[in-house]
Design goal:
Length: 418
């Protein structure tokens, strides 16, 4: 039967009380895999080993704390002695040359310098870059402003992961403006929009960081006999309590230039657009699909299309995700299926799913304005706003990307104005 993952308590709830014929389709109760910074990633071609107090770029930057890490980089809080300020340094793995990310960040900076587009304020701009050679190879380092919490951290502070509706409108407007700037002025598709890649700006970074350094001891791991820094978070107010919150879209390591007939796999799996799943050409609409899913997540506390393979091998994760999309929005348009290089992997000649042929349809209205949680509308959303919200989301989650609304159109939507 259909189920959704609840962001706050990870409970598993039914979308439909009628089971599918045959094996049951359910969502996984496990949290999506997080990349662990394993010692093996510090070998040849991997991360550069960094300790607190290390200096880089001829002594210009001193490492103060660890801020985070991912599959391809580590991020550090540092002091810039030249400009007497705090910065964040992103150190790429030695096997990640960073040319594509460097070119994209440079393009964003160049366009921003001459643009009046409001969306440029919601993109994290690069300050500078430098190279460093270490025991594991040569590394590219990027320097940025230091930011506060990412949105998943903020969501965790609210009941059921539901953010206040007015806060979500602020988030939606700023991210749409940022995406419109990337899409139309920079010709860039981010491809990796998710809550950990959207961070809050620190209103007084020098004060906030100085306070953190003076009051919070460095987090370290000494279990192995050596001291390894652990990531820390600079204290940030709740977004609903901020007078004028400003968000920044970060991490352009997976960003792509706009181009024709790009069909390779992109995006976080649970937020992957339909055209990407079936191998059809994709463009800026993939970012809009992802943001639509995230806005539902922020308002309702649910992840719409988190698929799971059947235990007996009857269907795959992608089969399950496609089935959930169809149950909410109806069948895939034939013209979209014709464009997919992987369509035959999932659909038969009639446009039906090969491994999950019988579905139990629901509606977007049932998910966003149902009789009880998590599908009931938030208490702080007026009844008169519900149809506008549903229309707003429907424009972002059209199955066919050619019918999906653009960021430029969505930012003018009536729901954001109320």
């Amino acid at each position: 039967m259909n189920r959704v993952r609840i962001l706050g308590n990870r409970a598993r709830l039914q979308l439909s009380k009628l089971p599918h014929p045959g094996p049951r389709r359910t969502f996984s109760s496990t949290i999506p895999h997080l990349v662990n910074e394993e010692p093996s990633l510090y070998g040849e071609g991997g991360f550069h080993p960094i300790s607190l107090g290390d200096t880089f770029d001829a002594g210009r930057y001193e490492v103060l704390r660890k801020l985070g890490y991912g599959q391809y980089s580590t991020v550090w809080l540092a002091r810039d002695f030249k400009h007497q300020r705090f910065v964040a340094i992103k150190a790429l793995r030695a096997d990640r040359y960073g040319k594509s990310e460097r070119d994209i960040l440079s393009k964003i900076s160049d366009i921003s310098a001459s643009s009046n587009h409001e969306g440029r304020h919601f993109i994290l701009q690069i300050l500078r870059r430098f190279n460093h050679v270490g025991p594991n190879g040569g590394h590219t380092f990027f320097v940025f402003d230091v930011l506060g919490h990412h949105l998943y951290f903020q969501c965790s502070k609210y009941e059921d992961g539901r953010l206040p509706v007015q806060v979500v409108k602020t988030i939606a407007r700023q991210l749409l403006l940022g995406l419109d700037f990337l899409h139309r002025e920079c010709n860039i598709v981010h491809t990796d929009i998710h809550p950990k890649n959207v961070l809050l700006e620190l209103k007084d970074p020098n004060t906030a960081i100085s306070k953190h350094l003076s009051e919070v001891s460095p987090r370290t791991d000494t279990k192995s006999g050596e001291t390894f820094p652990l990531r820390e978070v600079i204290e940030t107010p709740l977004i609903a309590e901020m007078e004028a919150p400003c968000l920044k879209i970060i991490d352009f390591g997976a960003a792509k230039w706009r181009g024709k007939n790009q069909t390779y796999q992109i995006q976080p799996v649970s937020l992957r657009a339909p055209e990407v799943i079936i191998g059809a050409p994709w463009d800026t609409g993939v970012d809009i699909w992802t943001l639509g899913c995230l806005i539902v997540e922020f308002v309702q506390g649910i992840v719409l299309f988190l698929g799971e393979a059947s235990k007996d091998g009857t269907w795959t994760v992608d089969d399950d995700r496609l089935a959930k999309i169809i149950e909410v929005f109806g069948p895939f348009p034939p013209e979209l299926l014709e464009r997919g290089t992987r369509t035959a992997d999932f659909f038969d000649e009639n446009g039906d799913l090969r491994r999950i042929p019988k579905l139990k349809p629901t509606t977007l209205e049932n998910l966003l304005n149902g009789p009880k949680k998590p599908f009931s509308k938030p208490d702080d959303m007026p009844e008169a706003d519900v149809p506008l919200f549903i229309n707003f989301i429907r424009g972002m989650l059209a199955i066919d990307p050619e019918r999906r609304s653009s960021a430029a159109d969505l930012v003018k939507h009536e729901w954001l104005k109320r």
